[in-house]
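Q&A log
Question type: sequence-to-structure
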Amino acid sequence: TEKILHDKIFKSKSGSTKRLDIKVSCANCLLEVEANGFVCVSSASRLTVDCVRDKARETMNSKISKGIQLYSDHAHFVCSLKIKDLYDLKVMKEKRRVATGSLLNQVSKQGFEIDQEKSSVKLGHHLTSALHLLKGHSKETFILVLGICGKIRDGVILEFDIPGGKRHLGENSLACAIRETEEEISLIIDETWVPNERSIKISLMNKYFFVRPPAEMMMDEMVKNPFWKEDGFCKTK
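Response status: OK
Response body:
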């Protein structure tokens, strides 16, 4: 249905149809029943989430060094955050100030310079949905988030969210999630990151893929960054 719609709209006088990436943003009755796609990287192992964060940063820096322009909606930074602090910010009014300070401190420690005294934080809609779907998981879990900086009168507001967005015409949910993830945080993933059907959750017209990095990638990253060799990792008598 979507391909027919695309061809009817963009068919040239010569009869040929040029492939155009058009975001789906019209009545559902005109489209196939297919949700938009979003990606969530979460784990009780901070090492796993940090590994994915570093991979995204590495790819972004490689693009920049080669003169490849990032997409206009690319995140200003990517980091690993504690789900506990995000929950506290979202639902625990009396803990919001402490949670805000903790989140800003985590961002700062991961290499993104901010003035904590003049910064505030906000949760994006899709991160909020992902947190709801993760309800019941250990609050010691870590989650990969993208950050967008915006100016306010007295400083800066950081909006945290997860990668993903609206489908293009003819695109399925997973293809959408894969494309949007590269566009927004430079992380390149594929279907091997989706372990099984249980890792896919649907909320309204959005599909959330709870992904895991392939074992080969984790091994490669550990070889590049042998954390066990760091001072103090393993103490012996």
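Response note: The chain has a mean pLDDT of 85.
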